[in-house]
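Q: What would this chain look like folded?
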Amino acid sequence: MLDPQGPLSNTVTTLAWVLIALMTAIFLLVCASMWVALYGSDTLRERLGGEKVVRWFGLIIPAGILFLLLAWGTTMVAGMTTLRGDEPRMRVAGNIYWWRVSYLDDAGREVAADANELHIPAGRPVVVEMVSEDVIHSFWVPKLGGKMDMIPGRVNRLKLHADRAGVYGGQCAEFCGGAHSLMGFVVVAHEAADWERWLAGRRAASAAAVPTSVPSTGDVDVQRGRRLFGDAGCAACHRIAGTPAQGLSGPDLTHVGSRLSLGAGILPNTRATLIGWIGDSQSIKPNNRMPSYRSLGADELRALAAYMESLR
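A: My prediction, written as structure tokens:
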């Protein structure tokens, strides 16, 4: 929050510094009053306890400051949520303990799906619709914007704006269960032209009848992992575009091999972490909804991880 990377987050930071300065001034004023009450002259102590001081410093000035902060905060939030109509639209749904990501067309229809990673263009605001599929979550990317609650049965909207391309971390900011602190998020900001190409590729892959992300190489582990994915029942929960796997209760894995992180932002995405996550996800993130596949052997876990890596 103290290192804003966009105009929206910069507004939040400015408000934070104003509140810190105000808090410091009040603290110093209270300390000075206590000193006068304990060690001041009789005249000063009499004035401090007078009706006029209590009226101004106990009622009128605090009420005025709170009114000004309320007006400023309301205006600031309106700027973060008011839509112009030409912003790219996305939808992020909170789940225990991961994020479902959808890219929307102008009519609000999903054109590409992903999980735990949001890709946006740099240099322009985007609108993110916030929903929840279970309990209350809160979406927060401190360097790019404000914080917004995700409430079941309600759609909230928040704008994000990155000044420059880069990778920005996010976090669920509302306690949602035992592994709440392990519910992270990644926002990747692209240069505008790169983002258009990236989104076009994702739209094509999502619409493809045949998976475009699975290599046609003779990699034995990849082919074995692909069979194991069906045999182990992974398809019941996960979707991979262009394959029979169309489960929706878990993260979409169509492009899992290209993600920067695993487990909703808590692990780097490598062959080793994939193996560890599939084999013992409950130890890494307790009470998440994916069972630990401890019954699989090391070679089977390696094959599944190889297949996941190939999904780009």
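The chain is about 40% helix and 20% strand.
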